[in-house]
Design brief:
heterodimer, A: two-stranded antiparallel ribbon, 20 helices, globular, B: two-stranded antiparallel ribbon
Chain lengths: 480, 629
C-alpha cells in the first residue's frame, strides 16, 4: 500500500463526478474526498507503524523523469491538510446551486489531486507538472463560477494565471540546470546532492523564490491575490488560501532551502525581513478594506508572511512553527471565508459597511465566527497560537527585533479582525433578516473549530509527525 | 498525587463546565436555574480552594501537577501543568470567593436581561481563565489565562452589543491589552532563551544557581514583562482602556475590572519576584510608573461625575500604589493591598450597581443625592468601604495602604510624597461620591424618586459580606505581627520584606497618613455637604477642571498619534501602493504587448524591406568578424 492510492482516488473521483451528472455531482465528490481522507488516515497508521509508503517508478526515459512520491512526515502532514480540507470545502458548498455542477465538483477533486501530487512528488519535473496542473482547475473555477463583473473577473483571473505561470517558468529553468549537474536526474535526493557554487546557488534560489513568492504570496508579489480571492467563488478562495498557497510555503522548505542552502544562509536577514514586512503591510492594508473577502485576503497575506519568515530562519523551531502555522492557517482561513459565504448567502453582499447587527439575529453563527476570529488572532488555546508562538520564538533567537516587529501581528491582527467583527456582526439589529445557521453550515464550522481547539491544547501528534522529516531537511541544509 | 490532580482539575474545570452548560442549555433552563448553576460552579471552586489552602498551610509545601506536554520547542519543553502554592492559593481564595459573591449578586442584578444565561456563561468562563492564570506552573500557561481573561473582559464589556460605543470600549480594552501582551511574549522569549525554561520552579533554581548572569538582558526581559503587567493592570501608558471598560454591566466592573483580572499584573510580578529582584533599574521604573499612575488617576477621579468612572479611576490609582510597593521589592505589601482592595473595591462597585439599579440606569451623581434613607444597606456598606479605601484607622485599607507608604518612605521620599497626595485625593473623591450620592436631597426625576427602594437580598447579602471583609481584612497583616508575611515567606528568597518595627517614625507616618485621609474627607464634607455644592453641568466646566474632566485629553492624544496614523497609512497603502504595484505588474504585461505591437509593424510583407534588413545584418556580422580579429 502506498500514497499513490490517494492520487488515484482523487483522480478517479474527478472523472466519476463528471460523469455522475449535475444532480448528484456534489455528493459523489464528497464521497470521494472522504474516501481519500479515510485512506490517508489508514496510510498514516501504516506510516506510524514504520511501514514505507513511498513509491519510486521509472516513468519517462528521456528526459529521465521518475514517478517518485516521497511520503515522509512533512509530506503526510500536508497530504492530510489537503484531504481534510477538501471534504469540508465541498460540504460547505452544499447550500449553493452551481451551473454545470458536474464540471465544478470534478474540477475541485482534480485540483485536490494536483495539490496532493505537488506535496508528495519527489522528482523535480513530476513536482513541476503537478504544480502547474493545480493552476488549471482553479483558473476555470474562478473564471466560470466567480462573482462580480465578468470582464473584471476575467482580467483578474488571467493576470493571476499568467503571473504565477511566469514565475514558475523560472523554477523550471532552475530544475533543468540542476538536473544537468545531477547527471540528468530530477530525483530530489540527487538534486540535494548537487554541489553548487554560492553564485549558482543564489541564482537557483532566486529562480525558486520568484515562483514561490508569487504563489505564497510574499510582498511585493501579492498584487494578484486580493482581487482573485474576492472574485473567485468562495470554494475557489478556500482552495487557494487554505491549500494552494501552502504549496509555495511547503516548497520553500522542501526544495528551495535544501537545494540552495548557502544562498539561504547568506541572505537570511533579507528574506526574513521580507516576510515580516508582509506581516505588517498586510495587517495595515487589511484594516481599511471595504470588502469582507478582501480583508480576509490581506489578513492571509500577513499570516503567510510570518510563516515564510519562520521558514527562512533555517532553524528547527522556525520550520516547525511554520508547518504548524500552515496547517492552522489552512483551517482557520477556510472557516473565515466560509463565514463570509454564509453571510453572503443571506445578505447578498460582502460590503462591510452594509453589514452589522447580525449578532442579535443569529447568536450561534456569531459564536462560531468569533471563535474563528480569535483563532485567527492566535488566542492561546487555539492551534494558531502554537504555530505563531513557535515562529515568533524562532525569530527572537535570530534577532529580537524580528520577534518584536513580527509580533505586531498580535496587536494589528486583533485590531483589524475585531474591527471587522464589530462592523459585520455587532450593533443595532440589521433590518434584513438573517436566518440562523443551517445544520450543514453548523457541521462545517464545528469540524473546523473542533480541530483548532483540540490541536491547540494537544499539538503533540502533529509535532511528532513532522519533526523527524524537518530534522532530515535541516541536516541537508547544514551539510556544508 | 492522584488526589491532587483531581482536586486541581475539579477546581479549574467546574467553572468551565458551568460555562458549557450555560452556553448550550442556559436559555432553555431559565434565568434562575442558569444563574444558580453559574454561581454554584464558582462556589465549588471556592470550596476546593479552601481545601487546598488547608492542605498548604498544614504541609507548608506547594503542589505541582503536570497534565501533559503542550508546546515543543527545541530547547524548551512546555507542559500544561499547575502549581498550587501559597501565592496561587491565596489568589484563588479571593478570586473564587469574591467571584461567588458577585455571581450571586448578578442573579438579581441581571435578571431583567434577556441574555442572562450568556452573562453567566461569560462570567464562568472568566473564572475558569482566571484560575488558569493563577495556577499555571509556567509562564505560557499563565499566558493562556492572561489572554483568556482578556477575551472575557472583551465579551463582557461589549455585553450590550447593540451599542457600538460599548463595542468600541471592548475592542479598545482587547487591543491595549494586546500591546502589553506583546511585551509579555518578548519577555518570555528572552527568559526562554536565557534559561531554557518558562517553568517558575525551574527558573527560580536556574537563576539562583547561575553564575555570570547576563543582567542587562535579564533586565530587558523584566522590563518587557512589566509592559505586559501595565496592559493588564492598567498602568501608564496603557491605562486608558480601564475607565472605558465601565461600559460593561456593573458586576463585571466589580469582578474583572476591580477585584481580580486587573491584579494579574501584580500577580505576575510577584510570581517572578526572583527575576525582578535582579533588575533593580526596572524596579525603579515600576515604582515611578506606579506612583505617577496613582497620582494621575487620582487627579482625574477628583472631578468625574459618573459614579462608575470615579471608581474606575480610583482602581487605576490603587493599582498604581500596588506597583509602587512592587517597585521597592515589597511584594507581600502589594499582595496585602491587592486583597484589601479586592474587598472594598468590589463592595463599592456592587454598591454603585445597587444605586444604578435602583435608579434604573442613572450613573451621573449630579442626578443622585439623598439615597441614604431609601437604600440604607447600600449606604452603610459603601460607607464602610469608603472609610477603608480612605485609610481611616482600623479598617482594612488603613493597614495595607499604610504599609505601602511606609515602604515608600524608607526608599524614596519623593515617591512617598506622591503616594501620600494620591491617598489624600482618594479620601476626598470617595467622600465626594458618598456625599453626592447619599446625602442631601434627591436630584433625580419625580418618577425615579417614586420608585426609590433598597435592592433585594441577593444584592445586599454580598454587600454585607464584603463590607465585613473590608472592615476586618486588615487583620491578616497587622503591623509587627503579620500572618500574611509569614504565609508568603516561602516565595521570597530574601527575608520577607522589611518588617517595620514600630518606632517613632512609623507612628508619626501613620499619624500623618491618617490626618491626610481625614483632611480629604473634611474637604469633601465642607464642599459637598456644608456648602451643598453640586458639580457643574458639562458645558460649565472650565480651566483645570476641564482638563481633568477630560482626562488630560490622553485619549484624544493617543487617537491622533496612533489610531489615526495607522488608519491613514492603511488608506494610503490601499489607495496608492496597492494600485501602484498592480499597475507595475500589469505594466510588465503591457510592455510585452507594446513590443509585440511595434514588432508587428516590421512584418510588412514587403520582400524589398526584408532583403534590405538581411543585407544590413550580413554586413554587420561580417564586419564584426573582421574587426574582432
Amino acid at each position: 500500500m502506498n500514497v499513490s492510492l490517494i492520487l488515484i482516488i482523487l483522480l478517479v473521483g474527478a472523472f466519476v463526478t463528471y460523469f455522475a451528472g449535475d444532480k448528484i455531482a456534489s455528493k459523489v465528490a464528497l464521497f470521494f474526498s472522504l474516501a481519500a481522507l479515510g485512506c490517508s488516515v489508514v496510510l498514516l497508521n501504516h506510516f506510524s507503524a514504520g511501514e514505507n509508503i513511498s513509491l519510486i517508478n521509472a516513468w519517462i526515459n528521456q528526459p529521465k523523469i521518475s514517478f517518485a512520491l516521497n511520503a515522509d512526515g512533512l509530506a503526510i502532514a500536508m497530504l492530510l491538510l489537503t484531504v481534510a480540507l477538501t471534504p469540508i470545502i465541498i460540504f460547505s458548498s452544499f447550500g449553493n446551486e452551481y451551473k454545470n455542477a458536474k464540471a465544478f465538483y470534478s474540477l475541485i477533486l482534480f485540483m485536490a489531486f494536483a495539490m496532493t501530487g505537488t506535496f508528495l512528488a519527489a522528482d523535480g519535473l513530476l513536482y513541476y507538472i503537478f504544480w502547474e496542473l493545480a493552476l488549471i482547475p482553479i483558473y476555470f473555477i474562478a473564471l466560470i463560477w466567480g462573482n462580480g463583473d465578468a470582464d473584471e473577473r476575467r482580467k483578474a483571473v488571467v493576470k493571476f494565471f499568467i503571473y504565477t505561470l511566469a514565475g514558475s517558468l523560472f523554477m523550471l529553468t532552475a530544475f533543468i540546470y540542476l538536473s544537468q549537474k545531477a547527471n540528468g536526474s530530477f530525483l530530489i535526493e540527487d538534486l540535494y546532492k548537487v554541489e553548487l557554487s554560492s553564485c549558482e546557488q543564489l541564482w537557483i534560489f532566486l529562480a525558486f523564490f520568484l515562483a514561490y513568492a508569487i504563489k505564497i504570496p510574499i510582498i511585493p508579489f501579492h498584487t494578484w491575490q486580493a482581487n482573485v480571492y474576492q472574485k473567485a467563488p468562495t470554494v475557489g478562495t478556500m482552495l487557494l488560501s487554505g491549500i494552494m498557497l501552502k504549496m509555495g510555503l511547503y516548497s520553500v522548505i522542501r526544495w528551495q532551502l535544501p537545494i540552495a542552502p548557502l544562498a539561504a544562509k547568506e541572505y537570511l536577514y533579507i528574506f526574513i525581513a521580507l516576510g515580516i514586512a508582509g506581516v505588517i503591510y498586510g495587517s495595515i492594508v487589511a484594516l481599511k478594506q471595504k470588502d469582507l473577502k478582501k480583508l480576509l485576503a490581506y489578513s492571509s497575506l500577513a499570516h503567510v508572511g510570518l510563516i515564510a519568515a519562520g521558514s527562512y530562519t533555517l532553524t528547527l523551531d522556525g520550520l516547525r512553527g511554520a508547518v504548524l502555522q500552515m496547517i492552522a492557517h489552512g483551517f482557520v482561513v477556510v472557516g473565515l471565508f466560509y463565514a463570509a459565504e454564509v453571510i453572503f448567502r443571506r445578505f447578498e453582499t460582502r460590503e462591510i459597511a452594509e453589514l452589522g447587527g447580525i449578532r442579535t439575529q443569529s447568536p450561534k453563527f456569531t459564536s462560531m465566527f468569533l471563535i474563528l476570529v480569535l483563532a485567527s488572532v492566535a488566542l492561546p488555546g487555539t492551534f494558531n497560537f502554537v504555530g505563531e508562538f513557535t515562529v515568533l520564538y524562532s525569530l527572537s533567537k535570530i534577532n529580537i527585533w524580528f520577534a518584536i516587529l513580527g509580533g505586531t501581528t498580535i496587536i494589528l491582527g486583533a485590531y483589524y479582525m475585531l474591527r471587522m467583527f464589530q462592523h459585520v456582526m455587532l450593533g443595532e439589529t440589521n433590518s434584513k433578516t438573517f436566518a440562523d445557521v443551517s445544520l450543514n453550515e453548523g457541521i462545517s464550522f464545528a469540524v473546523i473549530i473542533a480541530f483548532l481547539l483540540f490541536f491547540g491544547l494537544y499539538p503533540k501528534p502533529i509535532t511528532d509527525l513532522i519533526t523527524p522529516s524537518l530534522e532530515t531537511i535541516l541536516n541537508v541544509i547544514n551539510k556544508n | 498525587m492522584e488526589m491532587d490532580t483531581n482536586l486541581a482539575l475539579l477546581l479549574v474545570l467546574t467553572p468551565f463546565l458551568g460555562f458549557l452548560i450555560n452556553v448550550f442549555f442556559g436559555k432553555s433552563l431559565g434565568k434562575t436555574v442558569s444563574g444558580t448553576i453559574g454561581t454554584v460552579a464558582v462556589a465549588i471552586s471556592f470550596v476546593v480552594s479552601l481545601l487546598l489552602f488547608n492542605q498548604i498551610t498544614s504541609t507548608g509545601k506547594g503542589i505541582e501537577v503536570t497534565l501533559f506536554d503542550w508546546i515543543q520547542i527545541s530547547n524548551l519543553k512546555i507542559n500544561l501543568g499547575f502549581l498550587l502554592d501559597q501565592l496561587s492559593v491565596l489568589w484563588l481564595l479571593f478570586v473564587t470567593g469574591i467571584g461567588s459573591l458577585i455571581h450571586l449578586y448578578s442573579i438579581s442584578y441581571m435578571h431583567d436581561d434577556e441574555n442572562m444565561h450568556k452573562f453567566f456563561a461569560y462570567l464562568n468562563l472568566f473564572v475558569f481563565f482566571m484560575i488558569t492564570l493563577v495556577i499555571g506552573s509556567n509562564l505560557l500557561v499563565l499566558f493562556i489565562g492572561w489572554e483568556g481573561v482578556g477575551l472575557c473582559s472583551y465579551l463582557l464589556i461589549g455585553f450590550w452589543h447593540k451599542n457600538q460605543d460599548y463595542n468600541d470600549a471592548a475592542k479598545k480594552a482587547f487591543i491595549m491589552n494586546r500591546i502589553g501582551d506583546l511585551g509579555l511574549l518578548i519577555g518570555m522569549f528572552i527568559i526562554g532563551s536565557m534559561f531554557s525554561t518558562l517553568d517558575y520552579a525551574t527558573l527560580k533554581t536556574a537563576i539562583a544557581g547561575a553564575s555570570n548572569l547576563n543582567l542587562p538582558l535579564l533586565s530587558l526581559a523584566a522590563l518587557c514583562l512589566f509592559i505586559g503587567a501595565c496592559g493588564k493592570s492598567a498602568q501608564i501608558p496603557l491605562y486608558t482602556w480601564l475607565p472605558d471598560a465601565m461600559a460593561g454591566p456593573t458586576p463585571v466592573s466589580a469582578l474583572i475590572h476591580a477585584a481580580t483580572m486587573v491584579t494579574a499584573g501584580i500577580f505576575m510580578v510577584t510570581r517572578l519576584n526572583f527575576v525582578f529582584n535582579l533588575a533593580t533599574d526596572v524596579q525603579s521604573v515600576i515604582a515611578i510608573i506606579g506612583a505617577i499612575t496613582s497620582l494621575v488617576a487620582a487627579t482625574i477621579g477628583l472631578v468625574q461625575n459618573d459614579i462608575k468612572k470615579v471608581l474606575a479611576y480610583s482602581t487605576v490609582s490603587q493599582l498604581g500604589l500596588m506597583f509602587l510597593a512592587l517597585g521597592f521589592g515589597a511584594y507581600e505589601v502589594a499582595v496585602f493591598h491587592v486583597i484589601t482592595h479586592a474587598f472594598f473595591k468590589a463592595c463599592l462597585f456592587l454598591g454603585s450597581g445597587s444605586v444604578i439599579h435602583g435608579l434604573h440606569g442613572e450613573q451621573d451623581m449630579r442626578n443622585m443625592g439623598g439615597l441614604r434613607k431609601a437604600m440604607p444597606i447600600t449606604f452603610w456598606t459603601m460607607l464602610i468601604s469608603s472609610l477603608a479605601i480612605s485609610g481611616v484607622p482600623f479598617f482594612s485599607g488603613f493597614f495595607s495602604k499604610d504599609e505601602i507608604l511606609l515602604t515608600a518612605f524608607h526608599h524614596s521620599i519623593p515617591l512617598y510624597v506622591v503616594g501620600s497626595i494620591a491617598s489624600i485625593m482618594t479620601a476626598f473623591y470617595m467622600f465626594r461620591l458618598m456625599f453626592l450620592t447619599f446625602f442631601k436631597e434627591f436630584r433625580g426625576t419625580e418618577e425615579q424618586k417614586h420608585h426609590l427602594h433598597e435592592s433585594g437580598a441577593l444584592i445586599t447579602i454580598p454587600l454585607i459580606i464584603l463590607a465585613i471583609l473590608a472592615t476586618f481584612g486588615g487583620l491578616i497583616s497587622l503591623p509587627g505581627h503579620s500572618w500574611l508575611n509569614e504565609y508568603l515567606s516561602p516565595l521570597f528568597t530574601k527575608a520577607a520584606g522589611e518588617e517595620h518595627h514600630l518606632g517613632t517614625t512609623e507612628y508619626t507616618l501613620m499619624g500623618v497618613a491618617v490626618l491626610g485621609g481625614l483632611l480629604g474627607i473634611l474637604i469633601a464634607y465642607v464642599k459637598y455637604f456644608k456648602q451643598d455644592n453640586v458639580p457643574e453641568s458639562d458645558e460649565n466646566i472650565t480651566g483645570l477642571s476641564k482638563v481633568l474632566y477630560n482626562k488630560y485629553y490622553v485619549d484624544e492624544i493617543y487617537d491622533a498619534i496612533f489610531v489615526r496614523s495607522v488608519n491613514g497609512l492603511s488608506r494610503f497603502f490601499r489607495d496608492y501602493i496597492e494600485t501602484g504595484l498592480s499597475t507595475l505588474v500589469f505594466g510588465l504585461g503591457k510592455i510585452t504587448n507594446e513590443l509585440a505591437f511595434q514588432g508587428k509593424k516590421v512584418q510588412t510583407g514587403s520582400i524589398g524591406l526584408y532583403l534590405f534588413v538581411f543585407v544590413l545584418g550580413l554586413c554587420a556580422i561580417v564586419s564584426y568578424i573582421f574587426l574582432a580579429k
